[in-house]
Design goal:
The chain has 318 residues and is of the alpha/beta class. Helices cover 49% and strands 15% of the residues.
């Protein structure tokens, strides 16, 4: 069972009552189907009410949910014949970035994504999805390989941001991010970027230059975390809830700003409640998008990509 967030407790209470009634009915041989049906209907109404009126901060909590499907989960659900590749051929391998080749919907594709862990131990290994320079350089190596063999690239974004440690800075963190953005801008092969959880700061932008940017319904995408914004602008990190509204980081807000191209629906309650259903919904959207992009000539694809990003954030004459 997925961990319960504070605002989900009314739903959990009803689900517990339903479970208790079912157990009692089975144990005592009493037909309580009518009572159970009433409670199930009520639980669905409460669930739809809560998830249909989420605040920006509640969306942040869902995007950060520890049991939310990660890049590795989606690779297992959606792709076949996946072969992971390691190392940047300069320094080493970065476990915070997974990359390799696989097959999807009849196409050979290159897969790249941030990778968070499922528990504290794995998160320490994966550095909580915060990539080092070698992670971005590994990704660039795979992107260039994809271009050489005319494979589409699918990137999964799920990171609080690039790792800000001294070692990462010494090895050229800012340069690696900038070069990754430049590499994607010039790449002569289709690129689909999917924000599946947190899309934070330059760490996310390094994988964000796609021909199509998709966001799962409860994913977030922002230049800075709510806590960071509140700390810098208001000198008070406890105002993160308020900051989440100000920086407009939800999928709907990002779509309205013209940064995202499409919102991918999630199962009611978030992808963590039904990862397989979430993967199916994402797979349908990826298939439609990929079929559209592979029909475009590589040179035209690059020009369209440039045009797409030039107008993001542009201010009108008014």
């Amino acid at each position: 069972m997925a961990a319960i967030l504070e605002f989900e407790k009314p739903i959990q209470e009803l689900e517990n009552k339903i479970s208790e009634l079912r157990s009692f009915s089975k144990e005592k041989g009493i037909d309580l189907s009518n009572e159970i049906s009433i409670l199930e209907k009520r639980a669905m109404e409460v669930r739809e009410s809560i998830y249909g009126n989420l605040s920006s901060w509640q969306n942040v909590l869902i995007a950060r949910h520890p049991e939310r499907p990660n890049t590795h989960d989606y690779i297992e659900y959606l792709f076949t014949d996946f072969l992971e590749m390691h190392g940047d051929r300069l320094y080493g391998d970065d476990p915070a970035v997974v990359g390799g080749i696989g097959r999807f919907n009849g196409h050979a594709v290159t897969l790249i994504g941030h990778l968070k862990g499922k528990d504290t131990k794995e998160n320490l290994v994966r550095n909580f999805g915060m990539a080092h320079p070698e992670g971005y350089r590994k990704a660039m190596r795979l992107m260039k390989q994809a271009e050489k063999f005319r494979r589409p690239v699918i990137c999964f974004i799920d990171t609080p941001g690039a790792y800000p440690g001294i070692g990462a800075e010494e090895r050229g963190q800012f340069e690696a991010i900038a070069k990754s953005i430049l590499t994607m801008a010039k790449l002569k092969t289709p690129i689909i970027t999917v924000v599946i959880g947190e899309g934070g700061s330059g760490g996310a932008l390094a994988f964000g230059v796609g021909d199509r940017i998709l966001m799962q319904e409860h994913a977030i995408y922002s230049v800075i975390s709510p806590e960071g914004y509140a700390s810098i602008l208001w000198k008070d990190s406890s105002r993160a809830r308020e900051a989440a509204d100000v920086i407009r980081l939800t999928a709907q807000a990002i779509l309205e700003l013209g940064v995202a191209d499409k919102i991918v629906p999630e199962p009611l309650g978030g992808a963590q409640r039904d990862p397989e259903a979430a993967a199916e919904l994402l797979g349908q959207c990826l298939a439609e998008t990929l079929d559209e992009l592979v029909e475009i000539e590589p040179e035209k694809l690059v020009l369209l990509r440039h045009d797409k990003f030039r107008v993001i954030g542009a201010l009108g004459a008014d």
